[in-house]
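Work Package 3 (structural annotation) set out to generate three-dimensional models for the target panel prioritized at the project kickoff. During this period the team completed the workflow that converts sequence records into discrete structure tokens, so that structures can be stored uniformly alongside our sequence database. As a representative example, we reproduce one entry of 137 residues exactly as it appears in the project archive.
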Amino acid sequence: MKYSPDNQYLAVGGHDDTIYVYKIDTNGNYSLNWKIEYMHSSAITALDWSRDSRFLKAIDQAYLKLYYDCIENVHIKDGSTSLSDPSIWDTSSCKLGWEVMGVFPAGADGTDINSVDANSDRTRIAAGDDFGTVCIF
């Protein structure tokens, strides 16, 4: 689950391979705004919002990373170059991408790293692994 930076949306990734994007009104009530289904083939493992709360990045257990425009409610088919820029993202919890590729130890596969997150200015990344270790890069 991840709230958008403007706190107007909540994205929830499910084990049913679906992402549910809820709109939050001024009274704090939640309503389903968009159900993203039939895009992922396995459970959603991480979600990141863009700083402007427009775009959502998601990865699943099959190591598929997809991008969505949550204002237009569309999948962005080619993952535009501007969306691969780490500076547009409010959080960095997706373990796939150039910005986190150094967290995987030599010989590791995708399952060895369980979670990642970066500080707000992207000078540090923490990674939790299968060996019970939290590594700071």
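The chain has no helices and eleven strands.
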